[in-house]
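User: Just a sanity check before I run the rest of the batch. Below are the structure tokens for the first item. I only need the designed sequence back.
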């Protein structure tokens, strides 16, 4: 990397930090603004935030590694995310908004009681530790490949910045930085692709030199059976993962909650086919990467074709994607701890100001612990093993019972807790105990089937047992005068947030165009930067005309 690459990364990090700090005051007014951005955020902002939160740097390390090794298999896997988003948009997202709950934890507390809420809160916080760590490690890997800075130092620096602005600005800081990060990441990928294609000799040369079956959607490890099992998992994860539930509940109505998921679906239909090209092209250029070396294929391709400055832009894009997924989860766990643990269990009379500060402190402590876990990931077999195994073991067990309860009045606290405990115990045993004690090791397909199929089977059983009983569902509260005033304030905050987005992405577009002007083979960067500037101007114009 050149010195200008480090300058680009530093400027971008400063921009993201400043955006987060802009919302420090407005996000501190009350718990509604800090925790759910007033519950009136524009659906397109939440949709972009949901997408970029899902599409982290782990995508470029985990799926990029699979794309390098197996080709279109990576796209086949990611199609499950598009289909899962579609199912969520049609059947699930609006039901979360309909509950009237601020968080999934609040829904559990009202529907199933405090003890059940505590059970799921504890497990979800533990799960979130690993999910955040699983996105911090890949970006540390990217920075390590590009610059030689150790993974440990990279994780600590990047994680520290993410923790700082998430703790300062609350959900609005998360949403706005997510949109800006989406723009930067998209720009970075669009600049890399034409240069990578040129280096590989064009599409025809790439296609003819690719390994056999490189353009198949399935292979022996990631079979069509795995596809359908992973689709079921993705639907449960997109529809029930607590940080993503927050994207459906923080918009104004049920229709907009569906729009959030539909936008996610549309982006996931298009983007993976574009964004997985660089590591696939690098397989033709350099087919010699082995094992976990393939985790760096994406960054190696970028370094090979990009001039000084633009490597820093691509790396900033990868960092931004990681920041998006991490800040989404950090904000959610802070909300849950402050609102559903600190207040409801220990200090029921705590003021809004106190709860905001509790959330900030917990964000810092939780974030520090995730960084420690991220640094230890290489000791558990690498990021691909950790991501897929954690998903198979915990995803269905934690989130499937909650989604099921949105549709059924026959589930009780005992039934959903039983489904979660049995599924977790059996999945952990088959992953850790059975291979060593019984000599039985499940492949990806069976591991995923067990993780998502077992809790669903148990829930079906309880549907039959409780078929003559109907339990009270969550009822939406009537809006109070205080809540009405908060909603009016949130409209003003929306306008301010969109203005920050417009200004920030216009500034990003100008910076990209400037880098392109000063670089060899920089024409693509100039075009992309100009397009982003026009987009920022259009957003600014639209918000002014709406006032």
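Assistant: Here's the designed sequence for the first item:
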């Amino acid at each position: 990397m050149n010195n200008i690459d480090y300058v680009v990364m530093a400027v971008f990090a400063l921009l993201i930090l400043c955006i987060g700090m802009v919302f420090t005051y407005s996000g501190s007014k009350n718990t509604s603004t800090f925790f759910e951005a007033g519950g009136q955020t524009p659906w397109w902002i939440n949709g972009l935030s949901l997408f970029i939160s899902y599409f982290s740097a782990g995508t470029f390390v985990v799926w990029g590694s699979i794309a390098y090794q197996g080709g279109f298999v990576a796209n086949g896997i990611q199609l499950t995310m598009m289909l899962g988003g579609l199912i969520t948009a049609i059947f699930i997202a609006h039901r979360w908004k309909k509950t009237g709950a601020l968080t999934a934890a609040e829904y559990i507390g009202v529907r199933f009681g405090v003890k059940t809420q505590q059970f799921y809160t504890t497990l979800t916080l533990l799960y979130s530790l690993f999910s955040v760590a699983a996105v911090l490690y890949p970006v540390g890997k990217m920075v390590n490949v590009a610059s030689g800075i150790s993974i440990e130092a990279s994780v600590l620096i990047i994680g520290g910045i993410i923790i700082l602005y998430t703790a300062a600005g609350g959900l609005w800081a998360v949403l706005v930085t997510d949109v800006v990060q989406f723009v930067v990441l998209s720009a970075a990928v669009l600049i890399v692709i034409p240069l990578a294609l040129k280096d590989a000799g064009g599409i025809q040369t790439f296609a003819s030199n690719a390994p056999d079956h490189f353009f198949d959607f399935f292979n022996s490890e990631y079979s069509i059976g795995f596809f359908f099992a992973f689709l079921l998992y993705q639907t449960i994860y997109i529809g029930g993962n607590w940080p993503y539930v927050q994207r459906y509940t923080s918009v104004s109505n049920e229709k907009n909650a569906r729009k959030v998921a539909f936008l996610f679906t549309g982006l996931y239909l298009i983007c993976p086919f574009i964004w997985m090209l660089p590591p696939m092209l690098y397989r033709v250029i350099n087919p010699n990467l082995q094992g976990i070396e393939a985790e760096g294929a994406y960054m190696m391709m970028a370094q090979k074709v990009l001039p000084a400055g633009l490597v820093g832009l691509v790396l900033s894009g990868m960092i931004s994607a990681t920041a998006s997924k991490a800040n989404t989860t950090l904000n959610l766990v802070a909300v849950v701890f402050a609102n559903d643990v600190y207040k409801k269990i220990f200090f029921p009379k705590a003021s809004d100001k106190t709860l905001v500060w509790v959330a900030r402190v917990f964000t810092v402590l939780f974030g520090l612990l995730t960084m420690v876990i991220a640094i230890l990931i290489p000791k558990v077999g690498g990021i691909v093993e950790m991501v897929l195994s954690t998903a198979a073991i915990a995803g269905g067990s934690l989130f499937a019972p909650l989604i099921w309860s949105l549709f059924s009045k026959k589930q009780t606290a005992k039934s959903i807790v039983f489904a979660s405990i049995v599924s977790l115990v059996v999945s952990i045993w088959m992953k850790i105990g059975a291979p060593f004690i019984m000599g039985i090791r499940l492949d990806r397909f069976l591991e995923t089937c067990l993780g998502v199929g077992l809790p669903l089977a148990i829930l079906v059983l309880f549907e039959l047992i409780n078929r003559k009983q109907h339990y009270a569902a969550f009822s939406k509260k009537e809006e109070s005068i205080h809540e009405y005033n908060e909603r009016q304030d949130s409209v003003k905050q929306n306008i301010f947030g969109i203005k920050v987005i417009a200004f920030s992405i216009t500034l990003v577009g100008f910076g990209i165009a400037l880098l392109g002007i000063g670089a060899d083979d920089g024409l693509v960067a100039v075009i992309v930067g100009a397009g982003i500037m026009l987009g920022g101007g259009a957003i600014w114009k639209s918000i002014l005309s709406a006032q």
